[in-house]
Amino acid sequence: MPQSGFYAKVRRGLPALIGQWQRLGQADTDRLALILAETARVAKLGQPEETPSGATLVAWSEQDAGDAIPLWAARTATFLLVQMPARPVPESDDEACAWAYCWLRNRAFESFEAAEGALPDHLRGPLAAALKAAWTDRQGLRLV
After folding, report:
1. C-alpha–C-alpha distance, residues 24 and 11, integer Å
2. Which helix (H) or strand (E) holds 17?
3. Predicted confidence (pLDDT) per residue in 74-89, tens digit
4. DSSP classification of residue 91
5. Which residue, among 27, 23, 96, 36, has the nearest Cα to 70 in the 3D structure?
6. Which of 9, 51, 85, 86 is the most buried (most CB within 10 A)?
7. CA dist., res. 21 & res. 79, Å (int)
8. How confident is the model at residue 138 (pLDDT cuts 50, 70, 90)?
9. Cα separation of 9 and 17, whole Å?
10. Following CA atoms 106, 112, 115, 118 in sequence, which dihedral angle do they give, to the nearest 10 degrees?
11. Distance between CA atoms of 110 and 30, rounded to whole angstroms?
12. What are 40-75's pLDDT values in tens digits?
């Protein structure tokens, strides 16, 4: 039976998040992997040790790849997806949790309301429950 905690949902949702980037990006997988790594470096969302190959990007989008996906890749995919004119949205609860987790990791928000208010309008509904869960999870970690 799969774990039901918030972070378990995030990990299960990461491959779908990477998969959306792969499907919606308008380039071959090697180019999309390069864009992901370079954007991570430039936007200061992480420091990939090396640029992944297109095959690695495809592997990261496989359903059981959640634990293999580096956080920089997920954070960067979220960063890019949020800005797409196609206005993509998460396609499952697990994927919404991944988006919300990365949204909170990408910027420093003073309050839940600030984090919610900064979301593009098209994501407020689809991420409403997941963002609350992500905020609660993040606040809980501050107590450790």
Report:
1. 21
2. helix 6-24
3. 999 999 999 999 999 9
4. S
5. 36
6. 9
7. 10
8. confident
9. 12
10. 180
11. 37
12. 999 999 999 999 999 999 999 999 998 899 999 999
The first and second tokens of residue 117, run together, are: 């208010």
CB 130 within 8 A of CB 97: yes
Q: How would residue 144 be classed by pLDDT, with cut points 50, 70 and 90?
A: very low
pLDDT score recorded for residue 4: 64
Cα torsion 136, 103, 55, 38 to 10°: value is -140
Q: Say which amino acid occupies 80.
A: L
Distance of CA 50 to the CA centre of its chain: 19
| Geometric angle at alpha carbon 128, from 77 and 139, rounded to 5° | 80
